[in-house]
Amino acid sequence: MAQPTFAAIDIGSTKICTVVAEVTDGSEIRILGVGVGPSQGITRGMVDNIHAAMEAISSSVQRAERAAGVRILSAHVGFTGPHISSMGSRGIVAISDPRQPISESDTDRALESARIVNIPNNREVVHVVPRYYVVDGQDHVTNALGMFGSRLDMETHVVTAGSSAVQNILRCVEGAGVHVDSLIVGPLAAAEAAAEREELQHGAVLIDIGGGATDIAVFVRGTLVHTAVLPVGGAQMTGDLVVALRVPQPAAEQAKIAHGHALASLVDEYDHVEIDAFGAEGRKEIPKRFIAQVLQARCEELLEMVRAEVRRGAQTELLAAGAVLTGGGAAVRGLDLLAEEVLELPARIGRPRHLAGLSDLLNDPAYSTSVGLLRWALREQEIMLRPAPRRRRGVGGLFRKVAQLMRVVLPQ
User: Fold this and answer.
1) Threshold 0.85, pTM exceeds
2) How far is it, in rounded angstroms, from Cα 17 to Cα 366?
3) What is the pLDDT of residue 2?
4) Which helix (H) or strand (E) holds 124?
5) Cα–Cα distance measured from residue 260 to residue 289, given in angstroms and rounded to the nearest whole number
């Protein structure tokens, strides 16, 4: 009997990655197909050109379909952007019959109560993540089911996003003929793939450095306590090299990946590299240490911003496991060493793990969010996600239905 398949779409500022997978009998994720394409119409995680973004998503989905040999009609979608913010919320409910043990309906009511938060009209709740329970004053209860009490409190972490940004993402994905099963913010998904459970239990910060933004998720005692998105990422590192070296953007990106280092002191000052450049000759020789100095300045600035954001969410003394760096920007050599100096925490590079099938295609920090979306989708019953978007009537809904029908009928 064939296993049911499911899909995830990671919408980033530099690339869009679609992954198709199935769950094996051993509850392992088996990758069936991957489709990666350049991102268009998206800047720092936010849509700025609906039609261009729609085409980029459609192209990525079609590549994954051809690789997996299946149609993708629905997917779990990951997104990011500086419009994302978080807060704490407590849901409080009374137990109708204290002589009966606390049931799942009681915890569901507490979760619904926690969703009622005072936010502006232009924002909406994306996630409500339970942290712990309080039963009749007994604090930090990890699982209240089966316990007895007359009052149940649930401490939660609420993630909100700009309504217009969410609607733009939905429009782009649905316009590509794919129904959105759920929306998941990037740092929560990346933590699922790149961080170990023991690290989260002892306190850790997940730092996902993307092309246009850096996602942050802080965990204390295994629970999420803070989420933030910084509008700085790998694109700014490349941009600095373009200005400092006076070279084209592709040459700057190649120099960053092939010769870049986050600690200039570890680079031989006499080592040079020849790269494409502006000007009559078209090539120039540049010291590798100078490339590292430019990157180190930007990386230090980024990590200082991360440190300030982490301190808003938790005391650094509680983050014994330190920092897990992931995302495409984490590929800069020496970034983990620099992070240990700036953050004053242990640091390592996180990659997707525990995969089967075409796992070698995703064994890179840049794909942590893509894999994490699949893992997060499997936990939908444990953590309350944003409800699937309602089918909108009118032109938009008709357009999406026609797009889905064409994807079913027409060959690729």
Assistant:
1) yes
2) 10
3) 56
4) strand 123-135
5) 9
